[in-house]
Recover the amino acids of this structure.
């Protein structure tokens, strides 16, 4: 929410508002947003040594079906960094078989991100794929310059999730949000 810090700049006179008042307004907003409430799942992570495992994880090494299976950036010809691997059988809901893997080239020396416009869909400096788990993972020495430290996703924490203030319009919500209530929604990660 760093972009919206200006919303949290309270005027001095707002300090007279009691916290009880804010809580009431907050609850009132949640009631108005109730029919748009969804359950979100936040990953719970643990540091883990980099491993060619089939676990859900951020960073580290990907599961590889064979030793040529690690996606290579078309610009620098190096292995791309693994950003995320989701084992679909470990999801909290809508479980499935297989792995979803997301790779992104972070090679700044060769400027792959801008040369191949990695921030657009289907760039050759990124790869997103769904693969089946076959045998044990192949294990190779990556030629990638950046391997992020592996954080294994060990659990998913459910939470109530409401539309963010900026999305009220697309839901036809006409709600005036006071700065202090906005802050509370932000602080409690409600929307
Ligand atoms: Zn590259």
């Amino acid at each position: 929410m760093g972009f919206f810090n200006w919303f949290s700049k309270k005027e001095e006179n707002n300090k007279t508002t009691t916290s009880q008042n804010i809580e009431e307004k907050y609850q009132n907003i949640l009631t108005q947003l109730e029919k748009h409430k969804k359950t979100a799942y936040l990953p719970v992570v643990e540091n883990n040594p980099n491993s060619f495992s089939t676990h859900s994880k951020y960073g580290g090494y990907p599961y590889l079906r064979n030793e040529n299976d690690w996606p290579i950036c078309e610009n620098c010809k190096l292995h791309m960094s693994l950003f995320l691997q989701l084992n679909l059988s470990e999801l909290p809901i809508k479980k499935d078989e297989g792995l979803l893997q997301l790779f992104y080239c972070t090679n700044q020396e060769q400027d792959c991100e801008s040369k191949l416009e990695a921030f657009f869909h289907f760039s050759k400096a990124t790869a997103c794929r769904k693969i089946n788990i076959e045998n044990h993972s192949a294990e190779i020495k990556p030629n990638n310059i950046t391997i992020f430290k592996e954080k294994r996703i060990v659990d998913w924490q459910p939470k109530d999730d409401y539309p963010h203030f900026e999305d009220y319009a697309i839901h036809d919500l006409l709600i005036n949000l006071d700065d202090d209530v906005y802050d509370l929604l932000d602080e409690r990660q409600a929307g």
